[in-house]
Amino acid sequence: MAGPVQVSVKLFGLTKSLARNQADLVFTLNGDRKVRDLVGLIDAQYPAIGELILKKKVLVSVNQDVAHEETELNTGDEIALLPPFAGGAPPMEPNGQTVVADDEALLVRVQRENFSIDAELDRVRRRSKRIGGITVFLGTARDRSKGRDVSGITFEHYEGMAQKKLREIRERALKDFDIIELLIVHRYGPIEIGENIVLIIAGAEHRADAFRACKWAIDELKQITPIWKLEQTPEGEVWVEEHP
């Protein structure tokens, strides 16, 4: 029988709230070292979180990939619980990590500070003189959501995995659509009403291809990127599981 293994589990969004705002939980696995064994320990100590995992509303990731019940756990693994993302459904199984060259690093970013739309447009334009059509999607913070007044928003993200998913979106867009370049920038941290949140810019030879790629990219971002949205409302703080 394998010896005991101590693992640390990162918490985000709703799961952090359910664990009394702890950012990490530590568990000791005796004997079997699979994800299902870890879930059993979580369910015993934090039944509200365990119920969400069992209902597939919260996913378990191991080393920034979505894991299965039979996934083996080892000392040093990076484990996290992923509640529903701010954009929609839980992530699908990844197809592998994408490596981005250094000169492309600025085309996919998660950052706290605001961004300049003009500067990012110029960044895409400089990629190729064949670009003849550019489509821009800009997401901003609004003061009302699902019938509630909103006074402010805070975005939390899974550092590393969020960037990885955005790089996957860019690479898939370049492969599946007839475009020349795609840029994605998403902010995190506190954001005031009216401020910028996310920017996607698609550059192609023709406008129709740029429109299609831009729409697909923002829809995909909302589905698979581990970014969580906390709204400040008159009734208190609310974690947003999905929005249009």
From TrEMBL:
Pfam families: MoaE (PF02391), ThiS (PF02597). It is an enzyme of class 2 (transferase). GO terms for biological process: Mo-molybdopterin cofactor biosynthetic process. It catalyses: 2 [molybdopterin-synthase sulfur-carrier protein]-C-terminal-Gly-aminoethanethioate + cyclic pyranopterin phosphate + H2O = molybdopterin + 2 [molybdopterin-synthase sulfur-carrier protein]-C-terminal Gly-Gly + 2 H(+). One of its GO terms (molecular function) is molybdopterin synthase activity. Keywords: Molybdenum cofactor biosynthesis. Its EC number is 2.8.1.12. Pathway: Cofactor biosynthesis; molybdopterin biosynthesis. InterPro entries: Beta-grasp_dom_sf, MoaE_sf, Mopterin_biosynth_MoaE, Mopterin_synth/thiamin_S_b, ThiS/MoaD-like. Belongs to the MoaE family. Heterotetramer of 2 MoaD subunits and 2 MoaE subunits. Also stable as homodimer. The enzyme changes between these two forms during catalysis. This is Molybdopterin synthase catalytic subunit. It comes from Nitrospira tepida. The lineage of its organism: Bacteria, Pseudomonadati, Nitrospirota, Nitrospiria, Nitrospirales.
